[in-house]
Amino acid sequence: MLDVSFWELLIIGAIALVVVGPERLPRLMRTLGLWAGRARASFQSIRDEVEREVNIDGVQQTRRAVDREASEAKRKVTETVGQVDPTRESDESAAEKDKGDESR
Length: 104
Fold this sequence. Notes:
By secondary structure, the chain is mostly helical. The protein is built from three helices and no strands.
């Protein structure tokens, strides 16, 4: 992030001491520390939210891929059952139609 050495901090502190004065310098440092803490917390909150959103997108993509694979597997099983026992496929279709008629 920021690369500030000890000497740079010492120079900034000396300038602040001259400009602000020794009476108000501790209060100024507390205020700056408070602002820095709030900024850090805000950035962390934003970072966490972005990571959650990215994770949600990844989970949704995975779910879609699993759904596609499941429907493909179901289709293959149905085709295989139909090839092994052609009468069973027509029986299952009739049973599904009957269930649909009963639910209406």
